Amino acid sequence: MEKREQLYEGKAKKVYCTDDPDLLIVSYKDDATALNGKKRGSILGKGAINNRITNAMMQLLEKNGIPTHYVRELNDRETLVKKVDIIPLEVIVRNISAGHFASRYGVKEGIVFDDPTIEISYKNDELDDPLLNASHAIALKLATREELDTIKEMALRTNAILKEFFRSINVELVDFKLEFGKTSDGRIVLADEISPDTCRFWDATTHEKLDKDRFRRDMGGIEDAYQEMMKRVDSVL
Ligand code: ADP
Ligand code: UDP
Question: Is the CB of residue 193 below 6 angstroms from any atom belonging to ligand 2?
Answer without folding.
Answer: no
